[in-house]
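Sample log: DUF2000 domain-containing protein.
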Amino acid sequence: MEKFETKIAVLLRDDLAVWQRLNVTAFLVSGIGTAHPEVIGEPYEDAEGTTYLREFRQPVMVFEGGKEILAEARAKALARGLDVAVFTSDMFATGNDTDNRAAVKAVPGADLDLVGIAVYGARNAVDKALKGATKHP
């Protein structure tokens, strides 16, 4: 198995419903793929020649933790210069990207009610930023 120098990690709040965990994860990782096209592999193709969309070329690690762990991880990740995507509880009540961005912009970073973050960068730095979180079961 290839060992990557970078890491894609998602940290979810541990009190989310299953549908929320899946929804938040999908939203968060889309930010990494658009900001870092190098993490996207080549298109897939089956034996019949049908082609499929390109996907991440490396695993996405999913973790969970309490509200405090998310706030600490966000702060550590930003302090280490890592790229961070956020999803706040307010975003569950919106229905579009414009309202999502407005919900985040209305709150100072340290006060965001985070339900999930995605972090991308050097593997060691991501591990240090997520210290205290546990792997999602």
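Observation: The CA atoms of residues 16 and 115 lie 8 Å apart.
Observation: Residues 6-135 form a domain with the Bit1 fold (CATH 3.40.1490.10).
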